[in-house]
Structures are given as structure tokens and as C-alpha cells.
Amino acid sequence: MKTSIILTHWAQNEFRSRLMRECVQSIVSTAPEAECIVIDNGGNASDSTYLLEHCERKNIACYIRNRHNMSFAFGYNQGEKIATGDYLVFTSNDIVFENGWLEECIGFLETHQGKYLATPLAIDRLHDCQRYQRGAVDGWTLNAAAGSNVFVVRKKDFQIIGEFENKALAGTKWMQRYSKMGYVMACMPVPKAKDMAFKEGFRNIPKHAYQTTL
Hints:
By secondary structure, the protein is an alpha/beta fold. The chain contains seven helices and eleven strands. The protein has helices at about 15-30, 45-55, 70-80, 100-110, 155-160, 170-180, 195-200, and strands at about 5-10, 35-40, 60-65, 85-90, 95, 115-120, 135, 140-145, 150-155, 185, 195. The protein has a five-stranded mixed beta sheet, with helices on both faces. A four-stranded mixed beta sheet has the order 6-10-8-7, with helices on one face. A two-stranded antiparallel ribbon has the order 5-11. Helix 1 (about 15-30) links the parallel strand 1 and strand 2. The longest helix is centred in the first third of the chain and has 17 residues, at about 15-30. The N and C termini lie far apart (about 35 Å).
């Protein structure tokens, strides 16, 4: 089964630019056969050059550079429209992946044909509570709202759920929609990806640095 990884990037500060490079390197090393699609919302010409070089080396299958920050939701929808994979991975630019993450997520979705999405991330503290818990399947914890920063979904299921709304809290609204439709996120028993921005925290980043232009 072919997989398309859709990554959006906006260089709101040097911290985020550094994380993006770590993210891309981890994708290249752990999922070399995947169709990697990068949507660059700008902000740093050096980042754009870096991504284009990866495209020239064929690590990135398709590179799109928007002249303004169009928001991650707009970028995700751009990427999905040209993705050719049977499975889609939507990831932010602050995730670092470990070997086996993609194989395990695809394996779960291949084995379990219900209304599932899969994430290699641990459940974040905000959503690790009874309100969002939905039990477990074969050691995978089911959650109604975890994994928004990176998840794997069958393309046919994404088309049923529909694209992201290009507005504030687009990720949250998309997850609320799929939850109402009966879908649930399956969280890997032993996480094989790390949210590096969450690890280092946002408190040291000026508020204006992560505001998007819709």
C-alpha cells in the first residue's frame, strides 16, 4: 500500500525552523519509500532552499511554496489533493519519527478495518482523561481527540470525513467532526514519534510568533 506524508511548514521563528529540519531528516531516514509532500508557507528563505534541495535529491516527492502563510489547514488540503497514497499521514513540522512508526500504524489500520485513525505519538496530557478515552484494541489505546499533530488515515476515510476548514482551531474542529462520525484515534502502545515543540514548551516563544494568517 502506498503512503503519502503531508508536511506543512511555516518558519515563524528559528526554533521552528530547527525543528522542521529535524522532522524532515527523520522522515527521510524512517520512511524513504513514502511519497513526501511538503507545503511551505514561507517565512524563511533558507528553509525554502533546504526543502527544495531535498526535493532535488528526490527525498521530497512534491514541494509547494506559498508566497504567504496560508495556515496549516490550507496546506494540508493542498497536499491531500495531489497525494497518490492509499494512506495519508498529516504531520506538523515539530515531530521527530523513530524507525518502525509508519509500518506499525499502517499495520494496525490494515488489520483493523473499522473507523480508526492511528498515531505514533503518546497521548498528550490534555486528552489523556476519561472524557476522551474509548478503550483499547490489541494494546493500542483508543482516544477521541489525541494525535492531532501527526496521524495516519486511509485516504478513503479522509474523503468521507472531508477536508480541513481554513479557520482557527482547524485541527480541533476536524477531529470533532470525525469523532461525531464514529471514528477514533488508535495510539501506539510504545510511541515511536516525539512532539518536540511540546517537549520544549511554548512559554519561551513570543505569542505573535505562532499566530497564523488565514
